[in-house]
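Course exercise 7: structure representation. Students receive a sequence record and must write out the corresponding structure in token form. The form below is the worked example handed out in class, using Sodium:proton antiporter (395 residues). Read each field label carefully; the graders check that inputs and outputs are placed in the correct fields and that the protein name is recorded exactly as given.

STUDENT ID: A-19
EXERCISE PROTEIN: Sodium:proton antiporter
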Amino acid sequence: MYQNLALFTAFLLLYSIFAGRFEKRLLNGPLVFMLMGLILGPALLGIVQPRIDKDGLRTLAELTLAIVLFSDAANANLKVLRAHEGLPLRLLLIGLPLTIVLGWLVGVWLFPQVPLLELAILATLLAPTTRAGKAVVTNPKVAEPVREGLNVESGLNDGICVPVLLLFLALLVEEQAHNPVFLALELVAEELGIGALCGVLLTVAAWQLQQFSWKHQWQMPVWSQLTLPGLAVLCFATAQVLGGSGFIAAFVGGLLAGYLFKEQKHHLLEASEEFASLLSVLTWGVFGALVIPKAWSSLTWNIWLYALLSLTVVRMLPVLLSLSGTRFDTETRLFMAWFGPRGLATIVFAVMIIDYPLEAINTLVATAICTVLLSVLLHGVSANPWVARLVRRTP
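STUDENT ANSWER:
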């Protein structure tokens, strides 16, 4: 354990010192730490030997995703969203359903042996856009409507796909279900409704307590840094306990916190973003060290092809259709269509389905892992060059 800890923290220290040098090129944190885990892990050098089971990986990925969603939502510029409200709505109401349908159709073509309902589960696994990465979402050089549109889409996509995935899983398990429409409405109401309600109520309560403490001068700068990270995890965990979507709770709570805490939010979010970065690189390190090697032997040609199509045609065509009629030029539309990587949410969903009686569970999990791997590689190396190209084009 201590050898793993020493090696990981030494690599983290070196990367934190020279990150600017790396990230100005074709590399970024997720890609570097995934490669670090792959090279130093059991598959190659065998120097790092992490011991974590699927429940531990799921918990790590869920907590990371919850804090990331909360932080991104709290940093969202609501004025820009109100001015361009049609953009995230187009991506969510048109792009997301079309992505799932197109992913299902490609699965029918490439995996004829997999049951149709399980192919719908696979398409839903790969539909979320965890976020387009710091090089896009938090880069001030990217136009605000593009950044905020992708940011909101990624947060809501992750939460919306949860009830859709649970619906397909319930239909698979509940073979005697007589009213799937009612089941769908019930699941959507529970996941989205409970999640949003938890996010709103807990954030309002935390804000009121913070205001009361501020008036009485009970705030301490050291401890106040933990307010929003604690709120993010509280929103997520409470919603999960009550049967709602913890990801929706975290995202809604983050949006509301960004509005209520106003000028204080940037100071209070510093620790939250640092926690998210630390958990994120740890997740990608474990993914590279353990998950990729275990799935590698299962990656057949049709899995590689599906993963490639999932990142290109399946993601990009629906987004381009949803953006038709907007004022964005062709390259900006392609930019938004391309940056929808499958990352933390897909890892969480893939771990979730392992416990269900799926005939093609190995194919589904291997395809999800392959898609995440390609996403980290392709989106990672293309983010900075494409952002730089868009900046040069801007008059």
